[in-house]
Design goal:
By secondary structure, this protein is of the alpha/beta class. The chain has two domains: 269 residues, Aldolase class I (TIM Barrel, Alpha-Beta Barrel), CATH 3.20.20.70; 56 residues, no CATH class. It contains 13 helices and ten strands. An eight-stranded mixed beta sheet has the order 1-4-5-6-7-8-9-10. Helix 2 links the parallel strand 4 and strand 5. It starts with 17 loop residues before the first strand and ends with a helix. The mean pLDDT is 96. Bound molecules: iron/sulfur cluster (SF4). Iron/sulfur cluster binds next to loops.
């Protein structure tokens, strides 16, 4: 049992990390698709309380070496620089074996700090920035009420990199809908190429009930891409990624093709060949694969070669109205995020 405060989420890459909560919720909390902190007021925890948690965590770990720590929740950069630095020093003192301290950072918040402040934070130990950019298209960012622009994201991540922080970007497939899929892919790849982040993590959109995006969809202002269209979108992004060295990954369970992961540029061709293989399938086989993945008969595209499994999936799929399958896939994605 832990006796220190924990927030609700952490990035998938931080599954084994020490979690220390510096802020509660998200200072923006208005994105059209997001329900993470709905109804929760943003607050910054006091340095005193955070330090108490650090000491409690130190006791809990009992001298076991800890190499990674993630600062929860949505934006540690909302703290006064001196306070964040004090917390980072306390962390390093309690856990001298720490090699990585990471946090989400909102571009709008980070851009209010001077380069010298960002440097001070990096020097105190925060050496990894998670950036939920979601899209690099200003049109998509505006429609999704992200409250930021591609330029702002570029500035904040570059300042972090200049201070020596590693950066990892999250992007959401399908966020432009059918209306803005081309803009979403182009803006996103331009921003990824411009930042050259250490990592790119892909998520797949699901529209949560009660969100502004849900209202837009019902009003006909936003049209969901099909599963296959989202893979086409990912193809457009991956094809145009150039000149960067990043770990690219579809790690989240919501993604259709988890095998799309690797080092860029080395594995770009391999990942594109998996996408191209899927897109070259006839519609029935594409549907069989998507159904099989969403129902967990398949782990990856190669499983489609197993004739027994293919028949089992086909039989299971025949119990459903094919016109309703995309809706069912979406419902399943919604359960994952
Ligand atoms: S997506 Fe991120 S920035 Fe937007 S409301 Fe959710 S937590 Fe806040």
């Amino acid at each position: 049992m832990t006796n220190f405060e924990l927030g609700p989420i952490r990035p998938p890459d931080e599954a084994d990390s020490l979690l220390i909560r510096t802020t509660r919720g998200c200072p923006w909390n208005r994105c059209a698709f997001c329900t993470l902190y709905k109804g929760q007021k943003f607050s910054i925890r006091s340095v005193e309380d955070i330090k108490k948690d650090i000491l409690a965590a130190q006791k809990y770990y009992g001298g076991r070496p800890v190499e990674k720590c993630f600062l929860q929740d949505g934006d540690s950069f909302s703290m006064k620089t001196a306070d964040l630095v004090e917390v980072l020093h306390a962390l390093k003192e309690a856990f001298p074996s720490l090699k990585q301290i990471s946090s989400y950072g909102r571009g709008q918040t980070m851009n209010k700090k001077s380069a010298a402040e960002i440097q001070e934070i990096a020097d105190a130990g925060l050496n990894m920035l998670y950036c939920g950019m979601e899209s690099g298209s200003d049109e998509v960012l505006k429609k999704m009420r992200k409250g930021t622009t591609a330029e702002s994201i570029l500035n904040s991540t570059r300042n972090a990199q200049d201070a020596g922080m590693k950066t990892l970007l999250f992007t959401i497939l399908g966020l432009g809908g059918k209306e803005l899929t081309a803009e979403h892919a182009k803006g996103t790849v331009d921003l990824i190429n411009g930042i050259n982040p250490g990592g790119v993590r892909v998520l797949t959109l699901a529209v949560k009930p009660g969100t502004h995006l849900d209202s837009m969809e019902q009003a006909g202002e936003f049209t969901l891409l099909s599963e296959a269209e989202m893979i086409e979108e990912q193809q457009r992004i991956l094809e145009r990624i150039n000149g960067i060295q990043s770990r690219y990954g579809n790690y989240h369970a919501v993604n259709l093709m988890p095998e799309l992961q690797g080092e860029l540029p080395r594995d770009k061709g391999k990942m594109l060949s998996v996408i191209n293989r899927f897109l070259a399938l006839n519609k029935e086989d594409q549907l069989n694969f998507i159904f099989g993945r969403r129902q967990r008969y398949y782990g990856c595209l190669d499983d489609l070669d197993n004739a027994d499994r293919y028949r089992t999936v086909q039989k299971a799929m025949n119990d459903f109205d094919h016109g309703q399958l995309e809706k069912m896939f979406h419902d399943q994605r919604r359960n994952w995020i």
